[in-house]
Amino acid sequence: MEAINEIKRPSKNEQKVAQNSYAALIAAIEQLTGEETEIEIEETKDKIIIPVRALNFLGNILKGMSQGKIISIVPLATEVTTQKAAEILGCSRPFLVKLLEEGKINFTKIGKHRRIRIEDVLNFKQKMKEQQKQHIIDIMSDDEELGLYDS
């Protein structure tokens, strides 16, 4: 799989094309009955057989693009360096190493180097978001009880 180093948001035209394509793709997928289907590339007349799950995944990509989101595809078995994991989490590398040493995120050590599975990093990030959301709810509840916040 090729890594793309240039990160770009979809252009307005790409968003519009993705939005139209998403609607058409979802309508087509709803009519499919098997686990795979044959699609044709109009310009080249090439026909390929593709799993319906891949079409659903393509639908998710088109939906994100239509909303102007940057899309990244990473195989879940991929391991990342501590620097890359820190970038994903939005923290410093030393802070991430502290989390690793505290056992909050699983890792493997190859010589002196730590490697973290991307899925473990993403799971930790999701847990952190859930905790942050709960903390905000708790703060708002406390403020309401103290009369500092009008709901």
Identify the notable features of this structure and list them briefly.
CBS domain Like; 5 strands; alpha+beta; two-stranded antiparallel ribbon; 5 helices; extended; 151 residues; 15% strand
Characterization of this structure:
The protein is of the alpha+beta class. The protein folds into two domains: 12-66, CBS domain Like (Alpha-Beta Complex), CATH 3.90.1280; 79-145. The chain is 53% helix and 15% strand. A three-stranded antiparallel beta sheet has the order 3-5-4. A two-stranded antiparallel sheet has the order 1-2. It starts with 11 loop residues before the first helix and ends in a 6-residue tail after the last helix.
Largest sheet, if any?
Answer: 3 strands, antiparallel
In total, the number of domains comes to 2
Helix run count: 5
> Which secondary-structure class do the elements indicate?
alpha+beta
Overall geometry: extended
Contiguous runs where pLDDT drops below 50 for at least 5 residues: none
Q: Report how far apart the termini are.
A: 50 Å
Tell me the fraction of residues in β-strands, as a range: 5-15%
Radius of gyration: 22 Å
What's the SSE pattern?
HEEHEHHEEH
Let me know the average pLDDT. 89
Helix content: 40-55%
Strand order of the largest sheet: 3-5-4
Number of E-state strands: 5
